[in-house]
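SAMPLE LOG
Freezer: B-3
Tube label: C17
Construct: single chain, 412 aa
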Amino acid sequence: MKKKSFLQIIPLLLIAGLAALVMTGPLSGLILKGYDFEAQFKTPLILATFAIVARFMFAVLPMDRLRPKASELPPEPSRWKTWQQGLFLFLLLAAFASVPFLGSKYWVSVLIMALIYVLLGLGLNIVVGLAGLLDLGFVGFYAVGAYGYALGFKYLDFGFWGALPMAAMTAGLFGAILGFPVLRMHGDYLAIVTLGFGEIIRLVLNNWLDFTGGPNGLDAPPPTFFGWEFKQYASQGGVPFHEAWGIEYSKGLLDGFIYLVLLGAVAVTLYAVHRLRRMPIGRAWEALREDEIACRSLGLNHVNIKLSAFMMGASIGGVAGVFFAAYQGFVSPVSFSFFESALVLAIVVLGGMGSLTGVVLSALFLTIMPELLREFSDYRILVFGIAMVLIMIIKPRGLVQLRRPFFAIKGS
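STRUCTURE (predicted):
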């Protein structure tokens, strides 16, 4: 590629600086004070200077070397033996399980939200990453699981453990309801319909005052363990967990318990999805993603394949909703906006379409990164967005690109 001269770069730099001023000036340069506005030019000029420097680097440096080809990775045998993989996963799981005992309550709460997003990412990864069905309303299944727990306790006296299978089945049923109308839709049309589905659920939850509580939301009870409650003083007829086990009461007991159960749920889900990918249903999802016409020509029932993808992904999203409601102790429609669907979709795309390891890494990155940038509260979202852009430039297929399976004759 021919390098551009400095005179050719100057107009590009001016356009980049002007665009940065236009986009960020009204937001960061106008400060509201009472009924008047005060103009401050320092922050917009800093952002414009940063845009000019970044544009100059893109024009001068050989960015093509940093940007790998988006071709599919060839198959190759695993570099680790089976027992090595098992040992590494066991040590990693043990390290995560030790966080409630070694880490602070703050980091336990951060990791709880990170693991919830891992579950959501795994559910949407089945629909988008494996089956190739663009879903922008996945937050609707998340809301079904959370409200299923709160409403089940209010009207049916369902506890945490009973709500988990109930929410999975209910969300799976909603996935089937969504799947039927969109069987013949693809691409943008499918995205618009699923977006409408997520908004319909949020509006129903927001306006059905008598049943869901409307904007006021509903209380969700904390989970129990064999009837032991994670409170300092148990309710009538109950027994506190710390008294039953003879330990000192701590406010972090409930968060630690939710974290450990959630960690186990994530581990089981990862293993289940990993096995499903290698089963005929997983191969059918991938065939549907690559070419639906070829998939149908091979005799595969595309109706069952799409419905199974929607139902399986929705069930995992419903389970994540139960954990969210149990951790927050309260649910309201505000928690299930379109931004949540966009964030989960970003997790799947940033991690790598179809990659389980990528989904986990991406969910941890998108959850922990904003917390680490709290010291730069004024520029946190800007730095966060720039980091995502750089990752997608350097890794256009995600953090962990999916590699095709490798088959070899034993002894060859």
